[in-house]
Design goal:
The protein has 3 domains: about 120 residues, no CATH class; about 240 residues, no CATH class; about 150 residues, Reverse transcriptase/Diguanylate cyclase domain (Alpha-Beta Plaits, 2-Layer Sandwich), CATH 3.30.70.270. It is rod-shaped, with a radius of gyration of 42 Å. Strand 6 and strand 7 form a beta hairpin. The chain is built from 19 helices and 21 strands. Its EC number is 2.7.7.65. This is diguanylate cyclase. InterPro entries: CHASE2, Diguanylate_Cyclase, GGDEF_dom, Nucleotide_cyclase, Rev_trsase/Diguanyl_cyclase.
Length: about 550
């Protein structure tokens, strides 16, 4: 892209400006939907072997048919826990909300509490709920009798994005401070450092607000239905072999359609996942060390800005065509996102960077097109307009003059004895002579619509819209004198004298005239000047 002739300052300004805009766009999450679409494509089929200890005890349709209408007596859950304890289940997450005592039979709560105590490994859920939009959320805990008997309490706050897809969760949450672990975290039994990003509002925690911390992206073990399930009724009635349950991490929860929570995940958009399987995925992810950590917002936006700025700087320095640079630069954000995700379990949202690089490609492409268009109309040796550009501009100015009734002047300029310079001093000196003469001709095209052109090998043309015959004659006379007095260095201490011959014509175009009329008049005046001995000019008497 050196052909664009951008200065270093312009390159840096372009790179930093677009990089900053891309970084701000990433910080504001302007492209979150596109980013999530990319994320879903990258992780949707990125399965891993699930932890074989996990199993779901499903409250399914068959269990509801045989045990009756929901809710069941709590003694039924106590019976289930006894079956699981006898089978040697390692840990149980009883994903059922029990915030109120049984008002019909107090012994039901006592039976369940006793079963939880004997098991010694039961996790019960906590949930934040609000009865109205303006009311302070309330932390719903199991009744004290059951909470005291439980081995742990854990929150079941499921994070669902604005498009309805569950991609991540907060591993810690609680009222005022995030002290409850997620249910899947409590089930896994992991005791090490909890991964994840902060909520951002933890420093301004209110004791009346539900606070969250340690956000991670949930890597799913597979599509819905990947985890083994046994029916609640089969466990109670002893139809599940104890060997199948021994040493397991069991989640007891709803799977029956109509009463079970249903979630969309990146693994599938055509089938739902139950809340119990979601919690199983959380536990499996943590046990296997598969949590995906998003880049912190500041690091994410800084990475986007740097990536775009470096690509922009590289593209403005590149000598390759814009589409070649684009083919190299555009895949970089997606490649960086893929490498960080698959190699380091880090999520880098790439679309803001992709959009920034695309803007750079468009800007550089437009500048390149302008450059090519300019070059197509420019003589490469002298920098003047070429013959094609001259003919187009001359025709347009002629008809513009005819519409406005203003004069138009045309000067045809011939460099005298040019072949002599090539034959005597070589073509290199000949080129210098042409460039020297072209520079002096170009200085006469001072107004925006004036045009200086290289008409042929050693011929130049000057189009002067609105210039009167006298005004144009004075310019040409000064040009002839200036060229005559100048010289071109052809060797050490040696100067070559140059001169030009000019034919000038001025007219105010009539409705029946054509550009050829003015050109013929200027050409005839040039021939007269040449016949008079060159190194001078002639003005057409009547164009």
């Amino acid at each position: 892209m050196n052909a664009l002739r951008l200065s270093w300052g312009q390159r840096l300004l372009l790179a930093l400006g677009i990089g900053l805009l891309a970084g701000l766009g990433s910080q504001a999450r302007m492209f979150w939907q596109a980013d999530e679409a990319v994320y879903d494509r990258l992780v949707g089929n990125w399965d891993y072997p699930l932890d074989p200890r996990l199993i779901i005890v499903a409250i399914d349709e068959r269990s509801l048919q045989q045990l009756g209408q929901w809710p069941w007596p709590r003694s039924t859950h106590a019976q289930l826990l006894e079956r699981l304890r006898e089978a040697g289940v390692d840990r149980v997450a009883l994903d059922l909300m029990l915030p109120e005592p049984d008002r019909k039979d107090a012994t039901q709560d006592q039976l369940l509490a006793a079963a939880i105590t004997r098991s010694g490994n039961v996790v019960l859920p906590v949930l934040a709920a609000s009865t109205g939009n303006d009311e302070v959320p309330e932390e719903l805990l199991p009744i004290p009798l059951l909470a005291d008997a439980a081995a742990a309490l854990a929150h079941t706050d499921i994070e669902v994005d604005a498009d309805g897809v569950a991609r991540g969760l907060y591993l810690k949450a609680g009222m005022g401070t995030p002290y409850w672990p997620a249910l899947g975290l409590a089930l896994s039994g992991e005791r090490g450092a909890v991964p994840g990003l902060g909520d951002g509002a933890a420093g301004h925690a209110s004791p009346y607000q539900w606070q969250r911390d340690n956000y991670v992206r949930l890597r799913y073990a597979g599509r819905p239905g990947s985890f083994p399930q046994v029916s609640y009724i089969d466990v109670i009635e002893g139809r599940v072999p104890p060997a199948l349950l021994r040493g397991r991490l069991a989640i007891v929860g709803m799977t029956a359609s109509g009463i079970a929570p249903r979630l969309l995940t990146p693994t599938s958009r055509d089938s739902w996942m139950s809340g119990s399987e979601y919690q199983a995925n959380v536990a499996s992810m943590l046990l296997g060390g598969h949590a995906i950590l998003p880049l912190p917002r500041l690091l994410q936006s800084t990475a986007v800005a740097l990536l775009v700025a470096l690509c922009a700087l590289g593209m403005t320095l590149s000598v390759s065509p814009p589409w070649v640079s684009a083919a190299v630069a555009l895949p970089l954000p997606l490649l960086a996102s893929l490498v960080l995700l698959r190699g380091f379990d880090l999520w880098f949202a790439p679309v803001a960077a992709l959009a920034g690089i695309l803007v750079v490609v468009l800007v550089c492409g437009l500048r390149q097109m302008r450059y090519w268009r300019r070059q197509a109309n420019r003589d490469p040796l002298t920098g003047l307009a070429n013959r094609m550009r001259f003919e187009e501009a001359f025709r347009l100015e002629y008809y513009a003059a005819r519409r406005s009734g203003r004069p138009l002047s045309l000067a045809l300029i011939d460099l005298d004895n040019f072949k002599h310079y090539n034959d005597t001093f070589g073509h290199h000196v000949g080129d210098i002579v042409l460039q020297h003469a072209a520079c002096m001709v170009a200085e006469l095209a001072r107004r925006p619509r004036d045009l200086a052109a290289r008409f042929g090998g050693d011929e130049f043309a000057l189009v002067l819209p609105g210039a009167s015959s006298e005004g144009a004659r004075q310019l040409i006379e000064a040009l002839v004198v200036r060229v005559r007095q100048s010289g071109v260095a052809v060797g050490k201490g040696q100067q070559a004298r140059i001169s030009i011959t000019v034919g000038l014509a001025t007219l105010t175009p009539e409705s029946t005239g054509t550009p050829a009329d003015l050109f013929r008049a200027a050409d005839a005046a040039l021939l007269q000047a040449k016949a008079a001995g060159r190194d001078g000019y002639r003005v057409a008497a009547d164009a």
